[in-house]
Amino acid sequence: MPRPKPQAEPPELPEPAEPRSRDADRSQQSILLAARDEFALHGLGGARMDRIAERADLNKRLIYYYFTSKDDLFLAVLEKTYADIREAERHLHLTDLSPVEGLRRLTEFTWNYYIKHPEFITLLNSANLHQARHLEKSERVREMNSPLIQTLGDILERGRKEGIFRGGIDPVQLYISIAGLAYFYLSNNHTLSAIFGRDLMSLKARNERLSHMTDVILGYALKD
Amino acid sequence: MPRPKPQAEPPELPEPAEPRSRDADRSQQSILLAARDEFALHGLGGARMDRIAERADLNKRLIYYYFTSKDDLFLAVLEKTYADIREAERHLHLTDLSPVEGLRRLTEFTWNYYIKHPEFITLLNSANLHQARHLEKSERVREMNSPLIQTLGDILERGRKEGIFRGGIDPVQLYISIAGLAYFYLSNNHTLSAIFGRDLMSLKARNERLSHMTDVILGYALKD
Amino acid sequence: MPRPKPQAEPPELPEPAEPRSRDADRSQQSILLAARDEFALHGLGGARMDRIAERADLNKRLIYYYFTSKDDLFLAVLEKTYADIREAERHLHLTDLSPVEGLRRLTEFTWNYYIKHPEFITLLNSANLHQARHLEKSERVREMNSPLIQTLGDILERGRKEGIFRGGIDPVQLYISIAGLAYFYLSNNHTLSAIFGRDLMSLKARNERLSHMTDVILGYALKD
Amino acid sequence: MPRPKPQAEPPELPEPAEPRSRDADRSQQSILLAARDEFALHGLGGARMDRIAERADLNKRLIYYYFTSKDDLFLAVLEKTYADIREAERHLHLTDLSPVEGLRRLTEFTWNYYIKHPEFITLLNSANLHQARHLEKSERVREMNSPLIQTLGDILERGRKEGIFRGGIDPVQLYISIAGLAYFYLSNNHTLSAIFGRDLMSLKARNERLSHMTDVILGYALKD
DNA sequence: TATGAATGAGCTTTCATTCAT
DNA sequence: CATGAATGAAAGCTCATTCAT
């Protein structure tokens, strides 16, 4: 029984001209997309293999044929999710910008990406609920380390040299902070909306949030 | 018909020496605690009623006797969780402090509370995965609105009047930001640790994080 | 542990002046009525002890105190049901009527009683589903034998002697037939209504049925 | 997604020699038969899915795979039960007989069918206990309307034209009466036997009942 | 490559019944 | 006489997974 482990090669790479059946590839992609949606909607525990098959319009057995088990499927989805955001980050070109613009741009990007990809947040929550035991199994996890950290380090260093940023900022800490400012707001928007009795997802509210976040990040980074 | 006795008596009050057999309350509290742990560990979907009964050392049937269903039990746990943190906040006495100390104190408190109560984070994630449909059913949700928002508003105003804080800061936004800086780091620590290949939960790392967070919040609030 | 077996004394008999607590009696009667309704509505299998307690507005434990078990309670209800209809039959005074009027009156009575006491039918169905195993346990079952059989026999004999009824009619068979003509129509009215697409319980339909039944019975009994 | 293959193909058609493995149909038939027996024996409420699976010698899960729920299974059984009796009625050929013989034949058929198919009675009782809510969901219910009503109407009309039957007989009423005379006797035979202290199911008793029923029906239909 | 049929283990929930006072 | 608390057994149903083709 063959287990052709699939997925998420960087799409730019020209497909090697071997005819590994277009159908096979398409099926796997269908499954992956369907699974992503299902996991995002219900979490790992609440996701149903049946529903994934239905969403993908494919036989359930096929999921096992390609992905072995629910857990492995989840891992595959997770890896693809990371690959996707890394891919998006690659188009940011922060190095072309001034330090201030760079930070602003990164903050905006993070915010917008989370909004456009709500599954990202739910998926990450699921992964962490299960203590990242999935990631530990992944060999591709190392590659997931964002190249942004490097870039962000460069920006901070440039800014410091220009005398506008404070020194001693850990790019990892700052990266986590930017993400955290966006993530918490979006991830917990239901709870927060219920508690504060105001709709946090209106266009106005979202704009205010982004503005606030930028202020916080720049307020911190900029020297007095 | 049972009486799902709820909770959050001020824990200071010394229990009047019950003449025994008032086990109803104790049973409900046992269930609530056991459920909190189970939900925190496995999420709503992954939690098992059997395990909750086992943890509480009580008959499974009793859970239904007092709490009707898994969902209702989850809601009860959620309400108690909120009641607990509100109770803790009540002891903060931020108004006694200078604006700067107030902000610092609030940041520390948030950070420490999340660390001491890891279930808080997981529970909130679960609640949000289910789109807060539990909270919507709750009539007590309004009371959950943190009185801290008011206090935080006062602090910001005081600081502004003293000429040390910038103006126009929305206390809700700031509250969410403080929480977000802590929450994301802790909630996603497994994923982040795996990706960055460094242990984010070591004592040193945790201290660094708190220090960073405080810098960010004050860096933002303080006028240049 | 005392088990004061209750119920269904012929209500005319003056209560012996022993103070077996009015409350006790009232409780038992409440339970009996509540149980009758519940069993009639849901059958023996579908009936719920909880609901009976709720209907009777009494503690569930009390039901067991007085009636030992669900099965025994069902038997008690059954006995009371029979006692009730026997009691009603006692007021018929068929012997005062002409044979033809007697038959007509009995048919009408049967029909009207079933209509006024829909629980009678459901209860009997339940009893028979369980193969009357309840009745076999009952010592009072002998007393349940309708005295009407005797009366009906007299009527038939009188009619025969007057030369208007055919001879050789078995009163038990006729009794069962009268009951059957009414019972089946009412017991299966839902199914029949659905199948024939007409409402069998409208006033008009009910009158037509009674008229038809009387015609059948008299058409059979009367000599050509 | 399974295909709850229903039933009642005209059984005459010789099964095309299936190339094996078309076990789906056989499984569903097994379930249906087992369910019919279980429901007949214990009613809807008392029936156990476990026992049905055991009877059918199939995995319990499969029942849900094909029939979704206990209620739906019950409906399927009910529909099959009706289809079966309708099928049997189709072989009666009452139109070939004289009016008197036609009525006699119908009475005999009804009686014998109920005796040979005791599940029919219990199933109907269950359906009616639940107020035919199952039938209301069924789209096939219209087709269940007995074609016999038409035939019976023809017989009555023929008899009336021949001057031997009385006029104005509603075939639906008569159909219900014939069924009722048989149904009540058989459905309540346990209760009745207990009360009258005589075995109503002995061969002799059964013959007497049929004879009585025929007399009643003909006595009613025949003109004086 | 693809699929419909089948399953064992286990889930939430229900129920009649008993305990303890 | 009356009751709230508690329970073991089992019910209907679900789920990830495998079989057989």
Protein model, in words:
Four copies of one chain form a homotetramer. Chain A is mainly α and 224 residues long. Chain A has two domains: 20-68, Arc Repressor Mutant, subunit A; 78-221, Tetracycline Repressor, domain 2, CATH 1.10.357.10. Chain A has helices at 22-46, 49-56, 60-67, 70-90, 99-116, 118-129, 133-137, 141-144, 148-161, 171-187, 189-196, 203-221. In chain A, helix 1 packs antiparallel against helix 2 (49-56), helix 5 runs antiparallel to helix 9 (148-161) and helix 5 (99-116) packs parallel to helix 10. The first copy, chain A, starts with 21 loop residues before the first helix and ends with a helix. Residues 1-19 of chain A have low confidence and may be disordered. Chains in contact: A-B, C-D. At the A-B interface, helix 1, helix 6, helix 8, helix 10 and helix 11 of A face helix 1, helix 6, helix 8, helix 10 and helix 11 of B. The structure holds a DNA duplex (21 and 21 nucleotides).
The CATH superfamily of the largest domain in chain A turns out to be Tetracycline Repressor, domain 2
* Approximate strand percentage of chain A: under 5%
* Contiguous helical run count of chain A: 12
Tell me the overall shape of chain A: globular
Low-confidence runs of at least 5 consecutive residues of chain A: 1-19
Mean pLDDT rating of chain A:
88
Order of helices and strands of chain A: HHHHHHHHHHHH
Could you give the count of β-strands of chain A? 0
Distance between the termini of chain A: 65 Å
Query: What is Rg of chain A?
Result: 20 Å
By CATH, the architecture of the largest domain in chain A is named: Orthogonal Bundle
- Which structural class do you get from the secondary structure elements of chain A? mainly alpha
* Multimerization state: homotetramer
Largest sheet of chain A, in brief, is: none
Biggest interface pair, counts: A-B, 60 and 60 residues
